[in-house]
Design brief:
About 15% of the residues lie in helices and about 40% in strands. It is α+β, with helices and mostly antiparallel strands and about 150 residues long. The strands form 2 sheets. Strands 1, 2, 3, 4, 5 and 6 form a 6-stranded antiparallel beta sheet that branches. The protein has a 3-stranded antiparallel beta sheet with strand order 7-8-9. The longest helix has 12 residues, at about 1-15.
Length: about 150
């Protein structure tokens, strides 16, 4: 919960709409049926990343932030989606969904940021905002996730 409070304060200070933040916290507190759920899972439980990817989760969306012991993971249907960064340091997230057996079912690039900090869900717009280093972000649609 500390990360959620921290990101709310940081994003509010940056001038982002409080309505989006309220929707994100409401989605976590009272999940709607058939909606993606964001949970922070220990790094030690991460599946092996596909070639060319690395798992880098940070504990603050600023340059030079230390690594986090947990990562935001999206659960949707029977899949779990982990957010990886590219080993060539491009400013893109790799959005990789695994099925219940640990098999990769989708590996897509979401340009805009790297080194994941948080994932915010917008129930109304049915979008997920991936927040990374330097507050850079990428937006993906719920429909882009296998479920």
């Amino acid at each position: 919960m500390a990360k959620i409070v921290a990101v709310k304060s940081l994003l509010a200070a940056a001038g982002l709409a409080c309505a989006v933040l309220g929707a994100a916290s409401t989605a976590e507190a009272q999940a709607m049926p058939n909606t993606p759920q964001v949970k922070f899972i220990p790094v030690s439980e991460a599946p092996p990343p596909p070639a060319g990817l690395q798992l880098v989760c940070i504990n603050a969306p600023v340059d030079g932030a230390p690594a986090s012991k947990t990562c935001p993971v999206i659960s949707y249907g029977s899949g779990k989606t982990w957010i990886f960064s590219y080993t060539d340091n491009r400013s893109s997230f790799a959005v990789v969904t695994y099925d219940a057996t640990g098999k990769v079912v989708r590996n897509a690039e979401a340009p805009g940021g790297r080194y994941i900090f948080d994932v915010l869900s917008d129930d109304h717009g049915q979008k997920l905002t991936l927040v990374g280093q330097s507050q850079n972000s990428a937006v993906i649609n719920w429909s882009d996730l296998p479920h």
